[in-house]
């Protein structure tokens, strides 16, 4: 039988794009973080410095999902430690969300990049749907282990990883949604990725940042309403 089009598109040299076989059969976030360090579920591991797994308490009630590690995250091994992370921290504070109580991760765990002329600077390159799909087992495991009340999708890649390939942040940002197939699952709030705000022109950046804070405030309100009564 000939392989389906989907199978052909998600394989490389006969190997599927799939992180699933690398997941541990049991254990918490620490066990999954150790296992993810050895993940070869797609070609991105070949050039990245390391796997950048999520960080934060396993008891976190809110999970923030970005796209992929950037240059500094790849070097340091932690998510959102570069300029976009600092902007996110500021916006979270203004929205009333304690970053230390949040679990922060990315839809894709390896840095995808091209090398600038001269061979020194590494330039971010967006992951494609095969890579997002391959890495999704790690994201689903993180959500299963943290069991958050609210998940924030920071940008298009995170939105597609959580809600499906047809999801558009520009259409549904700031709305309180449900994870697909989850009758009693987490709320999802989509917004711009902080790096998009950093790339905005000077005249547009203030409004873009205000929109990020507004969307995060929707997540903060949902989190407060999910708080168990004393």
TrEMBL record:
Signal peptide: none
PANTHER family from the UniProt entry: TYPE-4 URACIL-DNA GLYCOSYLASE, TYPE-5 URACIL-DNA GLYCOSYLASE
Keyword Cell cycle included in the entry's annotation: no
Pfam families, sorted: UDG
Name of the protein in its database record: Type-4 uracil-DNA glycosylase
Protein family membership: Belongs to the uracil-DNA glycosylase (UDG) superfamily. Type 4 (UDGa) family.
Skewed-composition ranges (Basic and acidic residues): 1-12
Superkingdom field: Bacteria
Gene3D superfamilies for this protein: Uracil-DNA glycosylase-like domain
